[in-house]
Amino acid sequence: MDSTGHSRVTAGVTRHTSWFMIALLASLLVATAAPAYTVYVTNEKDGTVSIIDSAKLEVVRTVKVGQRPRGITLTKDHRWLLICASDDNAVLVYDARTMELVKSLPSGQDPELFILHPAGKLLYIANEEDNLVTVVDIEKDSVLAEIPVGVEPEGMGISPDGKVLVTTSETTNMAHFIDTATNTTIDNVLVDSRPRFAEFNADGSQVWVSAEIGGTVTVIDAKTRAVITKIAFKIPGMPLDAIQPVGVRITKDGKRAFVALGPSNRVAVIDTATFKVEKYLLVGQRVWQLAFTPDEKLLFTTNGSSNDVSVIDVEKLRVVRSIKVGRYPWGVVVAPF
Amino acid sequence: MGRRRGAILIKSEENNVAHSNAAVGLFAAGIIACVAPIAHAADAANPDWPCIQRKVATLTSVQMWDGPAVDDLSQWSDNEETRKLVAVLVSRRVPLEQAATSIAQFAAAQPQDKRDESLKNLFAGLLSTVNTDRATVMSGLERFQRRQKARAAEIERQDGVLRQLKERAAADEKARAELAAAEDRHNWDIRVFTERQQSLPLACEVPVVIEQRLFELGREIRSHMSE
After folding, report:
1. What confidence tens digit (pLDDT) does each residue in A158-170 have?
2. Given an 8 Å threshold on Cβ–Cβ distance, is B65 in contact with A282?
3. Given CB atoms, is A120 within the 8 Å cutoff of chain B?
4. What is the DSSP string of chain B?
5. Which of A265, A280, A319 is the best residue to mutate to test the B interface, defined by the most B CB atoms within 10 Å of its own CB?
6. Which of A200, A138, A194 is nearest to A165 (CA)?
7. Which residue spans within A2-100 are E strands per DSSP?
8. CB contact under 8 A, B63 and A305
9. Residue B31 pLDDT level (bands cut at 50, 70, 90)
10. Is residue B193 part of a domain?
């Protein structure tokens, strides 16, 4: 190769490199605009998990998992995905990146929802049939304790410091406060009919408990266990029995709460300073659970009857997309990768 | 809760079917045991409603979209173009993509200042027609359930007759002959009952599918509205 040819090649390579740099910069800019997170959705009827790319807002993979998958969470190190396979009576552990089955954890009968201790090692599982909360060490795969609670436990919340666990019982209509050091109940708070979900705010001062049949969310002072307020929902023209609060999520700054309202097909946006509903957003049919992206720019909702996931722009309070997933989408969790 | 109770009922029926060839007598007992839960599976306000899904008699516009309330509008039926499109959209044989295209064409053909109004009327027509169709499907399901209850009662009655015939059969030749025929009839009725019962979950999905389609179409119509 002569020197001219060489320089032409060099020029070509340089040009190629600069295009590559531009493309890289562009992709970085795009990435800054919309970080790509991985969203996992359990499809109760299909026995699958739909995996959504939060930048593309489309399903990139569907993986067969256990029977009747419902509750889903990610370990604190983001390595494992934990799924309640209710009809398999097990909690299945998957590698969150490859979706290979790692192991199956003992879970007790019919696990529906669970919550991880902030330290990341202990998993608290609600066993609806046995009226128990099972405490499992997810590294040693062993059951450490079984805590008797009210009839049909379901919702599970844990304080940010991990000291207090709250479980709700569907039939007893109570939120049970449990000391995680002794695994004993320290208090019971009566809420409205069929409580479904318990969520602590980020500073740990309040617990929000939704009641599906009661149609309310009870806000409880986490320290005194006194009821601060009960939030009711009114949508003009909507039959009251269609308003069934289930999933609750509160922003990290504690300013806004989002409540999934079941067959009213809406998510309520609540100003936490006044406990007033700012807005009702129409999502999909029978909206059930909610999950933020780590930057809290987007909120994903599972819509059990329309078999889709709605994506809410948290700042603009607008539904920006609906994404078809499997049948009866139930739980949702977002990984920071 | 209700959903799970319903699921158990279906499961126990499936189990009964699985064992039916092995032990018809046991199976019949199982069927009879199922009769009571059938009668009580529905909520008190709708004793003949056989589905796990809660009965919602009428779909309202506020549940189906975030546009204006259209529940009491009837002008849509005066407009031929709207009426024709409603007939196309409600047909479940028309794929949703095709329905979406028809809606887009309809929207594009409307003058800008009348578009929202026309689309609102289109949804009013759709909601009203779907509610009528859905009511027919739901009353069909209730009719089905009443017939199943009657079959279950008949099977229970036959069971009593069979027991008496079996007691008499050892000593009575006529009873023996009657017993064989009665058993045939009994087994046949159980088979019919079971097959019908197995088709129920699928039939119960029909109102759900209708509702899903209406929601999708509402979303599509709404996307062409400016307000």
Report:
1. 999 999 999 999 8
2. yes
3. no
4. -HHHHHHHHHHHHHHHHHTTTT-HHHHHHHHHHHHHHHHHHS-TT-TT---SSPP-S---HHHH-SS---TT--GGGG-HHHHHHHHHHH-TTS-HHHHHHHHHHHHHHS-GGGHHHHHHHHHHHHHHHHHHHHHHHHHHHHHHHHHHHHHHHHHHHHHHHHHHHHHHHTT-HHHHHHHHHHHHHHHHHHHHHHHHHHHHHHHHHHHHHHHHHHHHHHHHHHHT---
5. A265
6. A200
7. 38-43, 48-53, 58-64, 69-74, 80-85, 90-95
8. no
9. low
10. yes
Task: Domain ranges for chain A, please list them.
Answer: 1-33, 35-335
Q: Which of B214, B160, B209, B212 is nearest to B186 (CA)?
A: B160
pTM (whole model) above 0.90: no
The distance of A217 to chain B (nearest Cα, Å) reads 20
Q: What is the pLDDT of residue A16?
A: 58
Residues of B in contact with A282 (CB under 8 A): 65-66
Task: Give domain status of residue B52, yes or no.
Answer: no
Nearest residue in chain B measured CA to CA from A324: B216
Report the distance separating Cα A299 and Cα A41, nearest Å: 13
In a domain, B120, yes or no: yes
CA distances from B208 to A53, A209, B144, B214 (A): 29, 29, 17, 10
For the domain made up of A35-335, the CATH class stated in words is mainly beta
Identify the helix (H) or strand (E) that includes residue A7.
helix A3-33
Structure tokens at A258: 């989002």
CA nearest A106: which of A77, A76, A132? A132
- The complex scores an ipTM of 0.72
Q: What are A43's two structure tokens? A: 């499809």
Among candidates A239, A282, A306 on the partner chain, residue whose Cβ is nearest the Cβ of B60: A239
- In this predicted structure, the answer to whether residue A181 has a pLDDT above a threshold of 80 is yes
**Tens digits of per-residue pLDDT, A34-87?**
789 999 999 999 999 999 999 999 999 999 998 999 999 999 999 999 999 888
Show the domain range for B78: 60-227
Cβ pair A237:B215 closer than 8 A: no
Nearest-Cα distance to chain B for A241, in Å, is: 10
Backbone angles phi, psi at B13, to 5 degrees: -70, -40
User: Is B72 inside a domain boundary?
Assistant: yes
Number of cross-chain residue pairs from A and B with Cβ atoms under 8 Å apart: 40
More reliable by pLDDT, A260 or B178: A260
Question: Residue B181 has which token pair?
Answer: 């025929």
CA distance B182 to chain A (A): 40
Per-residue model confidence as pLDDT tens digits over A268-282 = 999 999 999 999 999
Q: How many domains does chain B have?
A: 1
Distance CA B125, CA B73 (A): 8
Identify the DSSP state of A275: T
Q: Which of A285, A287, A327 to mutate to test the interface with B (most CBs of B within 10 A)?
A: A285
What pLDDT is stored for residue A32 in this prediction?
Answer: 52
